[in-house]
Structure formats: C-alpha cells, structure tokens
Amino acid sequence: MIRIGLMGYGNLSRGVEAAIKNCDDLELVAVFTRRNPDSVKIKTENVPVLSESEIEAWKDKIDVLVLGGGSATDLPEQTPKYAKLFNVVDSFDTHARIPEHYANVEAAAKSAGKLGVISIGWDPGLFSLLRMISTAILPEGNNYTFWGRGVSQGHSDAVRRIEGVVDARQYTIPVDSSVDAVRSGSNPTLTTRQKHTRECFVVAEDGADLARIEREIKEMPNYFDEYDTTVNFISAEEMERDHKGLPHGGFVIRSGQTSEGTNHIVEFNLKLDSNPEFTGAVIAAYARAAYRLNSEGATGCKSIFDIPAAYLSPLSGEELRKSLL
Amino acid sequence: MIRIGLMGYGNLSRGVEAAIKNCDDLELVAVFTRRNPDSVKIKTENVPVLSESEIEAWKDKIDVLVLGGGSATDLPEQTPKYAKLFNVVDSFDTHARIPEHYANVEAAAKSAGKLGVISIGWDPGLFSLLRMISTAILPEGNNYTFWGRGVSQGHSDAVRRIEGVVDARQYTIPVDSSVDAVRSGSNPTLTTRQKHTRECFVVAEDGADLARIEREIKEMPNYFDEYDTTVNFISAEEMERDHKGLPHGGFVIRSGQTSEGTNHIVEFNLKLDSNPEFTGAVIAAYARAAYRLNSEGATGCKSIFDIPAAYLSPLSGEELRKSLL
C-alpha cells in the first residue's frame, strides 16, 4: 500500500480522498490542516486529522504528501518546504511562475532525496501533456484550448465581491462556431471574444440595483470586459437547486499539416461532472507515480512531461502491454 | 542532427520521410530496400537508396533505423535483428503477439546496448497511451474505441480478392448513435454491429455478377459478417477521382466514475487527412525519443507507456515548462 497524506481539506483534497477509495494500492493515512483539527470532519473512517504543526512526526509514515492548497500563496511556500520531508504532488497553476516554482522544488527535493511532482491536474496537467505531445508530432500547426462549459471559481469569486451580490456562479462556455471552425482544419485566428462567452447566475440583495451590478460585471477588467457576458438574476433557492455542482471540461486541439494540403486534427476532450473529483483522480495517479519513481531512485522535481505513463497504473508493464497496448 | 534510416519504402516510410522534412533536428540519411534500389525513387534529394544487404556498413552512420515493414512477417524478424545494430522504431500491430515481440526486441537490444521502441503509431500508439492514462485515472469505468471514418487497408484487400473485383476501397464508419450514447456517460454495452458500419466502393469487371460480389462481401467471415455493410459499384474513373486518399481517424473514450453519480468523459479524437503521414509523424517523434533515451544510457525494448513525453520534443525541459505546461 502506498501511504498518502493530504495537506489541507478543501475541494481538491476531498477529490483526492474520493479517488483513493477507488484505488486498491493507495491508502489515506492522515489529513493535516491549519484549522482546528476538531472542526474538520473527513469522509474516510479511522484516519486522523492533525494540525499542520505535527507533520514532521509523520516523515516515515507517509509515502506521498498531496498539497491541496492554492497557487497564489500556499504552494510557492509549501511545496519546496514539504519536498524536504516527503515525496509531494501539487497542482500549481500560476503559469508565469512555473519556472521559479520548478527550481525551488527541484533544489529542495534533490537535497532530501525526495521527488516533487508539480502542476498536476487537467490544465495544467493532462491538457499540457496533450498540447506537448501533439505539438511534437505535428510541428507545423496551431494549438487551441477551449474551456467549459464549466464553473470558473475565480470568476465566481470576482462577481461575489461586487456590492449587492449575495452569491454568484460563473460558467465559461466555448463558442460553438469557433470550435467547429477549428475542428474543420481551417486554422482560424481567434480573438478572446470569439473563443468563449461567460454566463453569470447572481443572487442579489433585496432592493439592490440590478442594472448597476450587471454593468459592473460586464465591464470588469481582465475578468469580463473582453468577453460577451450574460447575467441572470436568480433566487437563493434556484442557486442551491441548479448550481450546486462544479462541472467543468474543455478541449485541446492541435491542427497541423504533414505536407502541403494534408491536415490532421488531434483533439483531447474532457466532460467532467466534478472538476475537483476529476482533478483529485489525476493527482492520485501521479502520487502513485511519484512514489514508484522515487522508490527507483528518482529525485528532484518533475512535471507531467517527465513521467512515463506506465508509472500511473498499478498494473505491471507486462499486464499493460498485454491488455492496453 | 539525428540521423534516420528507413527500412523499406512503402506508404509508412514515405510518411516518415514527409515528417522528417518538418523537423529541423532530424535528417534522413539512407533508405534500404529488398527491391532493386535503382527502381526506388524517393522524395528527398541526395539520399542513397541501398539494398538491405548493405545495411551493416551503416552501423555507425545511422542513429535510429525506422522499420516500415508489416507486422505479419517483416517486423517479427526485422525488429530484433536490427536492434542488434541500431536503435529501432517499429509500428508492430499484431496485438496478440506483442508480449513475444517485446521479449525478442528486449533481448536483442539489451545485449547490443541499443534501444528498440515498438508498436508506435496511433493504434497501437497514441490510442493505447490515452486508454492507459485514462484507465489509471478513472479505474472505475469503461473504455470505448471507435475507428473511422477511414480506409481499412485490410478490408479493402479482402474485397479485392473476390472474383470479378478490379479494385475496392472499404471505409470503416462509427455509428453516430452509439458514439452519442457513450459521450452521454450512459456507459452502454455495444455489440460489434452497433459500433461500426462498413462501406465498400467496388470497381467490377465488365459483365461481372454484381449481386454475387455484393453477397460475397457481406457474408465474408470476420471481415464483414458481423457488420452492416453497404456496397457501391463505381467506375475506375470514380475510384481514381474520389478515393485516392487514405484518410482515417477515430476516438478513444473512457467513461468513468469517481463517486456515486459523478461521471467523467475523457475523449481522444483524431481526424487524419492521411493515415500514413500522421503515423509517420508519430514515428518520427518517437525516433527522436529513442535516440535521446539511448544517448542517456537506456537500452532494451520500450513501448509508448515507458517514454516520458518530454523526449518527443526538440525543445528543452525548461522551454517545454515555460511554453506548454
């Protein structure tokens, strides 16, 4: 059994917990939190919830520590810190800071003889892998990434910060006609507005100025101003009934030529009932890989580009070749 | 420059040749043939076409030998044989014999300090990779593979062997309603007939018994009897005009659950103007990987499951993390 620890117990960690239940070779052994451990109820029986300050005592009792924190402040600090004690996996997604994060984790993990796997999930993660592979295979061509239909947590939060908004959910939606154009192999150049629309469901305070809220959403720089946005005001009951889940998905398309007039479309497509549960399942598979690679002597930092697929599966190489090749 | 040799000069080798032209770090240095070398005209200038018997003299002048032969008789013999002299890549696709082929190539390549990469292309190949990864991520679920719309060379050949048939082209076509059912997440159980239909275009001899030809096609065991098949008789001119290309494609779908009622669809989808050119492009990328892995000391046999994606790209790890992660 590969012993997994979870740092934090937000949506993502709960997704990893659900994934572990589906894996016979993975076992959740401890959850660490910055909150009062007594206030955190987890879904797995007989697994302790502990204060983050107690983690060092678990150095030899955890094979892989999964870091469920956020990319803005948690992971830049936590991933290098804990890579000195454990094999770690994170879902670091601040694109511009990946080189710096990689360097920090590489130094920490290398010196400790541990392995750190960063930026795991579906984007960054599986989408990156497919972009990379299809670009290597079709060097002459274009990459297109579409997200949705799905809930963007960042955009939902941004709407919630507007005065008079009680709750909000924002869906990112790919524009069908643009997707069709890409799939046709016409290699279009698409603006931000042509690729996605944004749809908001908003619960407003009684008596709030709805026209102002709608205007503030649609004109919000970076988040909404470059998109065609629809705003729907709904009741708290409708929000609870219709928008509880966190579905997401999207697709990466490479459209490329091998010779004059010969075009190929490579598409990777996800349709997810639950973004955190799927992301957690990806992380669980890479936690398995981290443990196995480190057991064979690999140390330092790795991204999804560096890990052979065979390490993700509990099956042996022989079984994989026989059943899935 | 990575120096590539081609064994054979059929459709697949020509696809690899086209791919090499798109790669600044790959160079075609020689083509070997069992035919009279003078009878083989290749598309790359100043590259020699030589008899297979001369290959040993090229031992130190080729970094990777691509084996373009067939899986029935060529590759079981050639891949182990040439893995004693070169790093090799093949597209071995006889599923039942992969374990045996792997063992033979492993022994030959290992003893010679070379690397052999087997079963590269899109199925086996990229489809296998996606099946494997998505199965590891979603252990509870089902895999579905659909092929087409595309030309099946084997089925076209089978029709051509019928008395009275001058030429034939067979298209494999996924059944839309079944594909939709899979994509909906309903996890259907599908029979062979429910997954694909077959469409034949046949040029018959003057005066041939068309009803008999159509009956013989539709009742042909293994090839057609388990499918709904359409037969269209056309002229030689129509065949030349409308069916010259070798388009293909298909998709691998994993439909799996992470918890009760929470389903995810992972789809990998190819739409290829030319099956051999795309397959050749995949092989070219894995030839790059074979050379780089062997340069770092890796020897023996590897499948697509064993090779980190980073090795497929001419970009450095740093460049990949910065631009594609």
Structure explained in plain terms:
The structure is a homodimer of 325-residue chains. Chain A is an alpha/beta fold. Chain A has eleven helices and 14 strands. In chain A, the strands form three sheets. Chain A has a seven-stranded parallel beta sheet, with helices on both faces. In chain A, strands 8-9-10-11 form a four-stranded mixed beta sheet. At the A-B interface, α1, α3, α4, β12 and β13 of A face α1, α3, α4, β12 and β13 of B. β13 of chain A pairs antiparallel with β13 of chain B.
Short description:
Chain A is an alpha/beta fold and 325 residues long. Chain A has helices at 11-21, 74-82, 98-112, 126-137, 153-160, 176-183, 192-195, 210-218, 236-242, 275-295, 317-323; strands at 2-7, 26-33, 49-51, 64-67, 87-89, 115-117, 141-147, 150-151, 165-174, 196-204, 228-233, 248-259, 262-272, 300-302. The mean pLDDT of chain A is 97.
The main sheet of chain A comes to: 7 strands, parallel
Mean pLDDT of chain A: 97
Sheet with the most strands: spatial strand order of chain A: 3-2-1-4-5-6-14
The assembly state of the depicted protein chains is: homodimer
Largest interface: A-B, 70 and 70 residues
Question: How would you sum up the global shape of chain A?
Answer: globular
